[in-house]
Every structure is written in structure tokens, then in C-alpha cells.
Amino acid sequence: MLDTIRNLLVEQFEAQPTDVHPDAELEDLLQDSLDMVEFGAALGEALNVHLSDEEMSELTTVGDLLRRIESKGTSA
Amino acid sequence: MSSRTVAVTGLGLVTPAGIGVGENWQRICGGRSAAARDPELASLPVDISCRVPGFEPVARLGATHARRLDRHVQFALVAAAEALVDAGLDHETWDGARVAVVMGTGAGGPGSSYTQHQRLIDHGSAKVSAHALPMLLPNMVAGQLAIDFHATGPNLVTCTACAAGTTAIGMARYLLLSGACDVAVTGGAEAAVNPLFMAGFARLGALSRRLDEPARASRPFDAARDGFVAGEGAAVLVMERVDDAHARRAGVHGYLAGYGASADAHHVTAPEPDGRGTEQAMRAALADAGAEPGDVGHVNAHGTSTPLNDLTEALALWRIFGDGVVVTSTKGVTGHMLGATGAVEAVYTLLALKNQCVPPTANVEKLDPDIPVEIATGAVQLRPMSLAINNSCGFGGQNAALLFSRDAGSSPSSPRSLSTPRETAG
């Protein structure tokens, strides 16, 4: 699943691959709150899981995001 | 004249005639149309357009800008980067507070609006992009240029339909002359070739139906013209007060000496039948510069290739200039770039002045016998001249004209002799 997140962040949001790890903060990887919303929508589509804008705004790190997705029973 | 004249020190173009000023000028002088069948318009009554060739947003601007910005803003960023390099200005070190951005657009981001609306209908509001609003709002082109180039001075977008780019350049001059800024980054941008806009233009009867011969469809002033071909693109000009430009020894392409604007107050889409509105704007530009019609050697006309525009505009030109100017419409090559078109044609006008030649109007096979003025056709025509006009007319009856000068402070009457020799267009 981390690979899916990393690929998305690199290909669409111009993140550096080595910057994407569980301790990385999402706000450092994304340009602004608009991209946080866009990233949540794109990731939800890629993993077939619903990530609301509110949920995304509550997450701090990539690890938080991984745990949130796992809690929804997805294992892409 | 010089106190109201500003210098143009940088040029940038992204148009159907190419990406970059050099590529554009070569294509314009060659008179080869950029129109072609457009797969995005398939199933519409009109499916031809003039697209910017080979524009790759990711390669030019990166994945983030490619994803977040409307196409017209992407065009503007590329054109602005070229213009600033050309002007020799570095936005990393300039005093951004003294830099204004004034851009024109007819529609902002209607392509993004169309796409996002479709997502709303098909998938619901959660699928609408968080960037939808910044992409579709028409003021964003100037806002984004300010962000990318750290220009924190006055920042605005003019919206006068197909005169928008011309209006923007006129407004930018006012800002320079008022002292509100020291550098103006100005021009126009448009990317409105999408099914909704094309369907609307088709319903108006404004588009050429020469679908089987797209390269011959945009034919301004030709007897068989039947409408315009929609195009897209952007132009950016860097302008400064003359003393400032000369003090830093900037290369100068030419000078903007006068600006005029008017409203037809007649009809939402049809021009005033005698061209009185556009005549008023051009006369105002002349008066603004203290110039006489006889001083002008060339006009880059609005010349859309619609039956109404070309005739009414030619009548206006005849009343002002008689047979004293050589008129061209570069839309034969580029199509009609709507809100960007005036700014693009301002650049072509400057290049004509600088090179002392008039590019041909593409596709004129049989000149409309009702067109009284001299139209440049065939090959590039050498033309000694000191002043030239770029003329634009917008839906809503909004007209704008720019008077460019080859020199900074030449007296308006002295160069008149230069414009008297006439060569017949080939």
C-alpha cells in the first residue's frame, strides 16, 4: 500500500520517492490543503476506499494514512 | 509623444503558429494555416480548430502545474517565461512590488468548468476537484503569474471578450504612466476550444463550415469567407517606461504610443454595421499619441473571417486611413484566439514594425470586392513605416486599439514620408 501512496505522490504531486515514508508529514509532501483534498480523492479511487475530506484533514503522517486505510479493511 | 509612450522590452508567444516568438514569426510570414480537424469536437456541427502544436504541460511546467492549472494559465506561464528572459529581467532579484500584471481573457477556464461540471453530473460533488474554482475563475491567470514570478504590484484581468488582450495592454500602459508600477507584465490568454463553447459559437453562425478544407477555412477579407476558426494561445509583453528601459540598456522591440477604446452600444454579438465603434477606438488611439492617420503604415486588423466583421472593420479602416495603410489579418494562420488574440496580434504588429514588413493574410484567393482597403496577401511585403496599429473588437461591442511606434520619441508628423511608398500585395 505504501508503494501505491508513493507512486501517486511522485507521479501527480511531484514528491521525491525517498521523501515518502511512514514518518513523513503529509503537509510536507503536498503543496497545500487543496492538494490534500485532491490526494485523498485520487488515493481513494486507486484503492477503492472512501477517504472523506474531513478524514484527510485529521491525518498528519503517511503512517497515519496507512493505518486509516488499513482500518477500513483495504490491503492494496 | 514620448511622455505617453512606453517601451516593449520582452515578448513571449504560445499560439497555434508555434511556441516561441521566432517560430511564430516564421509561420506567420509563411502564411500557412494551423487549422485542422479536432477530435475533441467530434460530433459537433463544426469540428475544426487551431490548437497550439506540441504543448506538453508536464514537460514545460511540471506535474503539479499541469494538474492544477487551466490550460490558458499554462500557456500564459510559458509565454511569460519567454518574455521575461527576452527582457533580461530576473524575477528572483527584482522588486516585485513595482511589477504589475495585467492580463486579458475572454472566458477564463471554461474547459475546466466544462470538465468539472461533467464530473458533478456523472459522479456527484465529491468528485469535483478542489482546484475547480481556481481553474475556472478568469482572474487567475494574472494571479498565477504573480505567484510564479513574485510580482506583487497591481494585478488584474481585463474581460472584454475578443478585445481582452488588447485592453489589458492598454491598461498596463496606464499603470506605467501613472507611476503605479515600473514594469508591466501584460498580454492575453485563452483556451476555450471545448464542446460547449464551440456549440455556442456554431449556434451563433460565427464559425466557418469549411470542414473538408480546414486549412482554407480561416480566410479574412476573402470573398468566400464564411466564419472564423477558433484558436487558443497566449502572448505576454514586458513593458517599461521609456527612460527606465533606456537607462538599463534594455533591448526594445518597439514602443506603445497610444491606446483607444470604445463601445458599439449596438448589439451583443453583431458589430455596428458601419464600423463606427471600432473607428472611434482607432481614432482615439491616434489622438492619444498625437498622431495623424497618415503617419500609420500598417494595421493588424481584427479580421476574424466572418462576413460581418471583416466588412465593417474594413469600412472603418477606409474612413480613417484611405489607401494609406497595408492591412493584414494574421488569423488566416492562427485562427481566432478569442481573448488572447489581441495580445498575440500586438506582438505580430511589433514584429512587423521592427522588421519593416507586413505578413500576408493567409488564404485570400479572391479578395472581397466590397473591401476597400489594401490587404496584404501572398508573400511578405516590405513596408517602410514608423507607426502601426493593432485593432481588436469584442462581443458586447467592446473595441480596443493599440498604436505602436518604431521609435521612442519621433515627432508624429516627421515619419509621414516613410509611409507613402506603396507596394502592391503579391
Would you write up a description of this structure?
The complex is a heterodimer of chains A (76) and B (426). Chain A is an all-alpha fold. Chain A is built from five helices and no strands. With 426 residues, chain B is of the alpha/beta class. Chain B has a single domain, classed as Peroxisomal Thiolase, Chain A, domain 1 (3-Layer(aba) Sandwich), CATH 3.40.47.10. Chain B is built from 14 helices and 16 strands. In chain B, strands 1, 2, 5, 6, 7, 8, 9, 10, 11, 13, 15 and 16 form a twelve-stranded mixed beta sheet that branches. The relative contact order of chain B is 0.18. Chains A and B meet through helix 1 and helix 3 of A and helix 3 of B.
List keywords for this structure.
heterodimer, A: 76 residues, mainly alpha, 5 helices, 62% helix, B: alpha/beta, Peroxisomal Thiolase, Chain A, domain 1, 16 strands, disordered C terminus
Secondary-structure map with pairings?
The complex is a heterodimer of chains A (76) and B (426).
Chain A: H1 2-13, H2 26-29, H3 33-47, H4 53-58, H5 62-71
Helix pairs in contact in A: 1-3
Chain B: E1 6-15, E2 18-19, H1 21-30, E3 36-37, E4 48-49, H2 57-61, H3 63-68, H4 71-87, E5 99-104, H5 110-123, H6 132-136, H7 140-149, E6 155-158, H8 164-178, E7 183-190, H9 195-204, E8 233-241, H10 242-247, E9 254-263, H11 276-289, E10 296-300, H12 307-321, E11 326-328, H13 331-334, H14 341-355, E12 357-358, E13 374-375, E14 381-382, E15 387-394, E16 398-405
Parallel strand pairs in B: 5-6, 5-7, 10-11, 10-15, 11-13
Antiparallel strand pairs in B: 1-2, 1-8, 1-9, 3-4, 7-8, 9-16, 12-14, 15-16
Helix pairs in contact in B: 4-7, 8-14, 11-12
Summed up, what is this model?
The complex is a heterodimer of chains A (76) and B (426). With 76 residues, chain A is mainly α.
Largest sheet of chain A: none
Radius of gyration of chain A: 11 Å
Order of helices and strands of chain A: HHHHH
Q: What is the strand content of chain B?
A: 15-25%
Can you tell me the overall shape of chain B?
globular
Termini distance of chain B?
A: 34 Å
